[in-house]
Amino acid sequence: MKHNLPIRQCIGCRKKYPKEELIRFVSLPSGQIVFDRNCRLEGRGNYLCPDKECFDRASKGKFIQESLRTKEKRTEMLNSVRTELEESIEVRVRHGGKMYSSTDDDATIENIMQGDIVIITDNCRKIDLNSINAMALRKGALIYRVPVNVLKDKHACILKSEYFLRSQLIHDLRLLERLSSKGLTV
Predict the structure, then answer these.
(1) pLDDT in tens, 74-114
(2) Would you list the domain boundaries of the chain?
(3) Contact, 171 vs 144, CB < 8 A?
(4) 182: Cβ–Cβ under 8 A, 6 or more apart, which residues?
(5) What count of Cα atoms within 13 Å lies in the side-chain half-sphere of residue 52?
(6) Superfamily holding 7-69
(7) Is residue 165 classed as helix, strand or coil in its secondary structure?
(8) pTM of the entire structure?
(9) Could you tell me which CATH number the domain at 92-179 has?
(10) For 8, left (φ over 0), alpha (ψ -120 to 50), or beta?
């Protein structure tokens, strides 16, 4: 039995992608455009690739109202989407992750298994980063880099493969990764 994924078209580049790879914005009856992270808000939904270029292209179309046509407003909207994704990741990590910092012993990273999610911050020391990367790659774990504020004072987080919010977390991590102007992928 074949399971078809819903396909949506990006209003920026006009390419079609699986719905989960795009970010959804909703036009509310008041005329306001809001980010719909859970894809559950009522109203006319429009999808965008999580890329600044697509957002800029979409601003020239009918969907983006006059108040978002300036570069500052678009940047502000992108930053609010990025902030919401970072907050969502932080909450999910806090509920299910084993935090790791450079003062912890190496036994924590030795427990990485295939399918685990390893999240590393930008301020992770080079020595820690190399050992965590090597272990995660050897064991077949998924690796993501996030801004420092997501994990607060820790350098890395390990979420086991059976973590109950795994799919939502991976979705948010991928969107954040693509939205980042720094290309935060490892």
Answers:
(1) 777 778 888 888 888 888 888 776 666 555 555 566 778 88
(2) 7-69, 92-179
(3) no
(4) none
(5) 15
(6) YlxR-like (3.30.1230.10)
(7) coil
(8) 0.76
(9) 3.30.1330.30
(10) beta
